[in-house]
Amino acid sequence: MTRPTPSNSDAERLADAAGALCDLDGTLYVGDELIPGAVEAIDFLRERGMRLRFLTNTTTRSRRSLHLHVRSLGLSIDESEILSAAYAGVLYLRSVGSPRCRLILAEDAASDYAEFPIDENDPQVIVLGDIGRRWDYDLLDSIFRQVAAGARLAALHRNRYFQTANGLSLDVGAFVAALEYATRTEAAVIGKPAADFFNLALGDLELPPGKVIIIGDDIDNDVGAGQDSGLTGILVKTGKYRERMAAASAVTPMFTLDSVEMLTSLLRNSRT
């Protein structure tokens, strides 16, 4: 832990926490590799009686596939406890009247959207998610033309980069920004760091933000956005964390840990 002397108010909030929002990839695991201590940390939170939700901006998997993945890693997480940006997109589309959609999504994630009418040629909403190397000029240009003709953009998230086995890679946020610039419009952002995403999770927990901690490896989208929503922010130095990028951020986490493995001792010490 690199912040051993938190303020009294931070320590009190931590001691009083009744719920936790925890990022998945980069915080509990990276790809198919479990971060040491992740299982024990989640088990400790449950033993403490905390209500849990697991947040992710991953949009390449359906919620069912995400659940199968975390269970395969040995994490005791129920499917109902997972709130992904992809599934939040489903809730968003329902809230705006189930419009005609064009899905720019991986096939597995798109399976969550089976209830909506698909119209590749004249969509009312274009849903943008992670599609890896399928991004190219022709695809971006076709989206640009449809937005110029009146379609709305719904970005499942706007992350700048993500962690891979080979280091950091460009994420969908760069393409969202390019389309917003070209079309002079603003996309509806569904996942982190949107306040509505955190409000959705808090509503599911049925807890006020002052009683909930947020644990993540992204200083801006996890910790900063969570703290903006009133949560107690805990940054972990795993996954996409980079010291230089954290230093350049305007966000000051309430607590910083080397990894989720140290969460148990942090919470125990908060009550002493």
The CATH architecture category of the largest domain equals 3-Layer(aba) Sandwich
Describe the main β-sheet briefly.
Answer: 6 strands, parallel
Look at the structure and give the mean pLDDT.
91
Query: Which residue ranges are poorly predicted, with pLDDT under 50 across at least 5 consecutive positions?
Result: 1-5
Supply the number of structural domains.
2
- Distance from first to last alpha carbon: 17 Å
Summarize the structure.
The chain is of the alpha/beta class. It is 38% helix and 19% strand. Residues 1-5 have low confidence and may be disordered.
General description of the model:
- The protein has helices at residues 8-16, 38-47, 63-72, 85-95, 107-110, 137-148, 173-183, 195-205, 219-228, 243-248, 263-270, and strands at residues 19-23, 29-30, 33-34, 51-56, 82-84, 101-104, 125-128, 152-155, 161-164, 167-170, 188-189, 212-216, 232-236, 255-257.
- The protein is globular.
- Helix content is 38%, strand content 19%.
- The protein folds into 2 domains: 8-57 and 195-270, HAD superfamily/HAD-like (Rossmann fold, 3-Layer(aba) Sandwich), CATH 3.40.50.1000; 97-189, 3-Layer(aba) Sandwich (Rossmann fold), CATH 3.40.50.
- Residues 1-5 have low confidence and may be disordered.
- The strands form 4 sheets. It has a 6-stranded parallel sheet with strand order 5-4-1-12-13-14. It has a 4-stranded parallel sheet with strand order 6-7-8-11, with no helix packed on it.
- With 272 residues, it is of the alpha/beta class.
- The protein is built from 11 helices and 14 strands.
- Helix 5 links the parallel strand 6 and strand 7.
- Helix 6 crosses helix 7 (173-183).
